[in-house]
């Protein structure tokens, strides 16, 4: 994986959203959505991806809730809903088929193995281990 992909794992789909300004902090510095989400302990690209898969209204409500808890930007204390409305317009639109395909690719093979299959595999491995360590029957030595 290249450094660019590591730093920006989902490409540039979310650049407009993540690099948009949410307001100025108390020192007068612009704070981006990316910085806001990171300071709140959220993965910015994951959060942007999840927001993009929601309807605009649902994305607005979720983002507004997130922004209301961010205290570093004073304007967000009163205007978090308005800022969230503007920011959700910057999210890329995903069709439901693309969203389901994306979610399918996120599943790992281990999530598709049932408990019964895992138990059967464990039993086979246990039997093989016993045969290997205890040796075959009938040698008498």
Describe the structure.
Helix content is 59%, strand content 5%. It is mostly helical. The protein has a domain at 3-96. A two-stranded antiparallel sheet has the order 1-2. Helix 5 (56-68) packs antiparallel against helix 6.
Provide a concise account of the structure shown:
With about 140 residues, the protein is mostly helical. Helices cover about 60% and strands about 5% of the residues. The protein has eight helices and two strands.
Layout: helices, strands, pairs:
Blueprint: H1 3-7, H2 15-18, E1 21-24, E2 30-32, H3 33-39, H4 44-52, H5 56-68, H6 75-88, H7 96-106, H8 115-134
Antiparallel strand pairs: 1-2
Helix pairs in contact: 5-6
Give the tags.
single chain, mainly alpha, 8 helices, 5% strand, disordered N terminus, membrane, transmembrane helix, transmembrane
Segments where pLDDT lies below 50 for 5+ residues?
Answer: 1-7, 95-102
Rounded to an integer in angstroms, the radius of gyration calculated over CA atoms is 25 Å
Profile the largest sheet. 2 strands, antiparallel
CA-to-CA gap between the ends? Answer: 55 Å
Shape: elongated
Secondary structure: helix percent: 55-70%
Residues in β-strands, percent:
under 5%
Structural class designation: mainly alpha
- Strand arrangement, largest sheet? 1-2
Tell me the number of strands: 2
Task: Kindly report the average pLDDT value.
Answer: 79
Secondary structure tally, helices: 8
The secondary-structure element order is: HHEEHHHHHH
């Amino acid at each position: 994986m290249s450094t660019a992909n590591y730093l920006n794992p989902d490409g540039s789909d979310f650049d407009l959203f993540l690099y948009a300004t949410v307001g100025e902090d108390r020192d007068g510095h612009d704070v981006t959505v990316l910085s806001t989400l990171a300071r709140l302990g959220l993965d910015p690209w994951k959060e942007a991806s999840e927001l993009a898969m929601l309807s605009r209204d649902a994305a607005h409500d979720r983002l507004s809730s997130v922004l209301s808890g961010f205290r570093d930007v004073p304007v967000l204390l009163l205007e978090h809903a308005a800022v969230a409305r503007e920011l959700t317009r910057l999210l890329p639109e995903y069709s439901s088929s693309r969203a389901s395909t994306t979610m399918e690719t996120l599943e790992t093979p281990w999530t598709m193995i049932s408990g019964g299959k895992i138990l059967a595999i464990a039993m086979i491995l246990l039997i093989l281990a016993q045969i290997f360590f205890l040796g075959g029957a009938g040698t008498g030595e």
